[in-house]
Amino acid sequence: MSILILYTGGTIGMTVSESGLAPSSSLVEKLHTIFPSGIANTPEYSVQTLDPLIDSANLDTTHWQRIVAAIQQHWDAYNSFIILHGTDTMAYTASLLSYVFANSCKNIILTGSQLPLGAERSDAPCNLALALSLANGIPLGQVAIAFGNQVLQGNRATKISSQAFAGFDSPNTPPLVTNQITPHYRVNGLTGCQPCKEPAELHFQPEAVALLWLTPSLSQASYGGFLHDSKCKALVLVSFGAGNIASENQSFCQFLADAKDKGLVVVNVSQCQHGGTSTGAYAAGSVLTQLGVLDGKDMTVEAAFTKLHYLLALDHSPKEIRTHWQTCRAEEWSE
Ligand code: ASN
Description:
Helices cover 26% and strands 21% of the residues. It has an 8-stranded mixed beta sheet. A 4-stranded parallel beta sheet has the order 13-14-15-16, with helices on both faces. The longest helix has 13 residues. The radius of gyration is 20 Å and the shape is elongated. Asparagine binds next to loops. One of its GO terms (biological process) is amino acid metabolic process. This is Asparaginase. InterPro entries: Asp/glu_Ase-like_sf, Asparaginase/glutaminase-like, Asparaginase/glutaminase_AS1, Asparaginase_C, L-asparaginase_C, L-asparaginase_I, L-asparaginase_N, L-asparaginase_N_sf. GO terms for molecular function: asparaginase activity.
């Protein structure tokens, strides 16, 4: 088994600077000291740093391009990939990679930490040990996040705490693995596991996907601009409860009708972490079907946002995106 660790930044490798924690290349040396490659219980691994290292709050599509390219470049040489990533946007990258590398037999595992490697009480050693043991183990059949003694399906995970060591949850699906004295494995995805094949070439469009979180008394200023932004091709609508909107707000309904006419793809997900949309349950939600809004079911915001980016990066037209949206590519929603 051979493992490539791609280091992209995040708290796991940060050191204290004058303005607070900031990315540092010193992680690689610390990693080799604490986890000597191929010695004792540590499997053999290589490390590649993806410069520039970032706080993942600075993540954009150029970083996705770099991570995807690095995995593609080393695809044949390694059995597993561990991505060291900041926690703030880890679920976005995990979701994106789940579409790009869907159904692969190789393990792609993202991890990071809430405290830097080497800091007192750091969660980094535990998260790294978990990621390394998984990378060396059975194919998970999913891009995964290993964090806080859990292994979560990447495109169903979301960051739930800026404090707790259990920083992630996957509210609509159980963990792939629960790390305990006898680890508990959820039988998953492996049936869909296929021989690896070359993923398609991606042309990311940096500002093509926007997000609108609904509130009572929504101001027109919060959505009107999307129609006049030539870069904006798709919108994630984060609606109330079971997927409802203010159906009596004529201006907002007109906006959705205009968006449809203009070819702006709109996807609806729920503000509730659990349960997702139940399209048709309420009149205040079924109006969305009439307005051509696509159903995001029980997807996370991260999974919906990155699926749109992925489909756009394949150069699909709005019509093609609407068709491809319906296919569950990487178990991103519950069937
Ligand atoms: N701001 C950090 C990041 O996302 C948070 C972390 O990694 N824990 O890069």
